[in-house]
Amino acid sequence: LILYFLYKNVTFLFSGVGDDTRAWGPPFVGTESIYFLSVNRNKKSIAVNMKNPKGAKIIRELAAVSDVFVENYVPGKLAEMGLGYEDINKIAPHIVYCSITGYGQTGPAFQRAGYDSVAAAVSGLMHITGPEDGDPVRPGVAMTDLATGLYTYGAIMAGLLQRYKTGKGLHIDCNLLSSQVACLTHIAANYLNCKMEAKRWGTAHGSIVPYQAFKTKDGYLVVGAGNDQQFVTVCKILNLLEVSKDSRYKTNKLRVQNRKELIEILSARFSEKMTTKWLELFEGSGVPYGPINSMQQVFSDPQVSSHGAFLGTALIFPLELVGLIVLSPAQPVVSNKVNRLYFAPVLLFSESHLNEFLMLE
């Protein structure tokens, strides 16, 4: 999705009936999966029978005039069809060839298929996600997929820069497992250096107190005091200045040690007021804070809408046969300008799709 805003020409090659996400739902718009539409906008779609030599030839011809080649097959599968990195490099030495897999190109598990949740489990993300006294939990969205996509995007940009300098392409290996392990950051460092096994903290943070969600009279508010001065400010807002002077809570290290008692005190005070009242009190304080929002609240938030994240920023685009669809943006703002051009993925076997269809039997 992000590459589209740089190149304006992203082609999705598939075989058979297309991307599995076409069948993922509900919800659907007509017969089309919202999930599919959300991740495949702005891509041209061409169906090719890659097992047919003529189909493989078409892909090689496309590669010869492309900048980037991205594939997510089990390692070795494309090489069997004459479409591996070595094959493409012979005809397009300039190309940045990127392989996205579940487990990478080497190692005992390299030929396993991979999905987001499986990689989240194997990488330890699920182990550290969920309530403190509960079971492991899958993150609400496919964080491992998203992280891998962003790592891949960065690697592709670096690859294109190298090509600009040297004229030569390269092979990038991105995989779900390595991407998610990289995202463990300090959690991984804690174990590797101190053999400190990670645990689940719910909405709390293992090394910063207070930094978590607090239940209000009608919802939840997340507050983070990343330093001692912010903690004093939180106590002032809660009218608990005496707590900030308590020797047990003077430093973050002490607050972590005495987490249970402190959180009980703060939780009792947060429960006394409505979320909107706490938002008013924290406004302008310099302390990071925010409510836990539903989707309705997210897309009603004026700050969210100011960044072009919903209807009104041309995120509506025509979808053949089923009308209009609204999707959130997939790119950062560059030079204070939001790219407002979106187009929908074509419907499978639709008339406009057939104009580009390259099915070879």
Automatic annotation (TrEMBL):
GO terms for cellular component: mitochondrion. InterPro entries: CoA-transferase_III_domain, CoA-Trfase_fam_III, CoA-Trfase_III_dom3_sf, CoA-Trfase_III_dom_1_sf. It comes from Terrapene triunguis (Three-toed box turtle). Keywords: Transferase. Belongs to the CoA-transferase III family. One of its GO terms (molecular function) is succinate-hydroxymethylglutarate CoA-transferase activity. Pfam families: CoA_transf_3. This is Succinyl-CoA:glutarate-CoA transferase.
